[in-house]
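Q: How would the structure tokens look for this protein?
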Amino acid sequence: MRADRLVSLVLLLRQHGRLSATALARELEVSTRTVLRDIEALSAAGVPVYAERGRHGGFALMPGFRTELTGLNHDEALALLVAGSRRGAQAFGLGSALASAMLKVIDALPEDHRDIAAGAAQRLLIDPETDLLSRRRVAEEVPDAIVTEVRRAVFAGHKLRIHYAAVDQTTRWRTVDPIGLVTVRDQGYLLATRSGADRTYRLSRILAAEELDEPAQRPDRVDLDRAWQERSARFRAGGDQVTVLVRVDPARRRELVDTALAVRAEETAADGRLRLEVTFQDSRHAEWALWHLATAAEALSPQWLRDSLRNRAAAIATCYGASS
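A: Here is the predicted structure in token form.
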């Protein structure tokens, strides 16, 4: 999406002559910090963007500048193409738009870089669907009609009515004020407020959506990075969390830490193994994480977790110990 945004930024400056960082952020639906990073990227790529100081200042292009990105070298052009990762675009129903944007970027490149960059981009693969162990990354499927309606409400600043299937709750309609869209590991989320309270909805659980004519009650500006971090922190702090003392093989530490919510303490034991105090979302989460590490990790406490893992292991042993 960044390549599409960079082209859009240049086109906005071409059309309006001069725009402030705030105005660009509003038009591009990003934070002002992102706009400033994009301005720096364009300048580094040879696009003559300059800043005008003062009350009516902002960013502008040098007079007569054409939208051909003639200042790009081979590596910079390749970076733009690689930046067009399809995963986020697919999650938000923008796959076709991204493909179109990439064609425009390629067409705008200097002729001597065009074929080289396009060919090189074919030799780079970003986030394939399976890893070396053939474990498949399962992207959540969201009907185009639903994600398009959600996206329209987000961009237009209108209230949104969704038919939502929350976990362990009756499916029902809710009217929300959409803030923005986030994609994490092939899962799309809608950040919104409902009756003034922060809410986060997984797109795959929205069964139907309807953009309303009523304006959404939301701030004019939003920092999605910060909003996501704050909501993630609240999520990790909620629920029926459990803290577990674990002895783990150092070679498998990362697997344990990657599944846990937080690591509260860590030390190296006399036998060379690590002793970690880690927090999991709930008891099922803790049992699942330790079971997958098999003998590479041992839950030292709480006792109920040791009992649960022992009973599960005994059941497996009985199953495979029986004669066929």
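The two ends are 56 Å apart (CA to CA).

Residues 90 and 247 are 41 Å apart (CA to CA).

Upvote if useful.
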